[in-house]
Model the fold of this input.
Amino acid sequence: MTAKRWSRGLWWLCRQPDQEVTFIGPITANGKTAPGFACRRCCDWSHRYVDAYIRQLDARSAS
Ligand SMILES: [Zn+2]
Done:
């Protein structure tokens, strides 16, 4: 796994300017796509969300 690159910028879901953000993937809205950058707190939350999602998938495929 490669280390994330952090830079100062705006994460528009938190709307806190000048915080450390990292690229988390493209975000599509109304058929248009832009690069998405998230702050550390949102990244931590996203990790927990993805882990829970994968556990659900594993539980389903096991049954
Ligand atoms: Zn955030």
User: Anything to note?
Assistant: Strands lie at 7-11, 16-29, 32-39. The chain has one domain: 7-62. Residues 11, 13-14, 38-39, 41-42 surround zinc ion (CB under 6 Å).
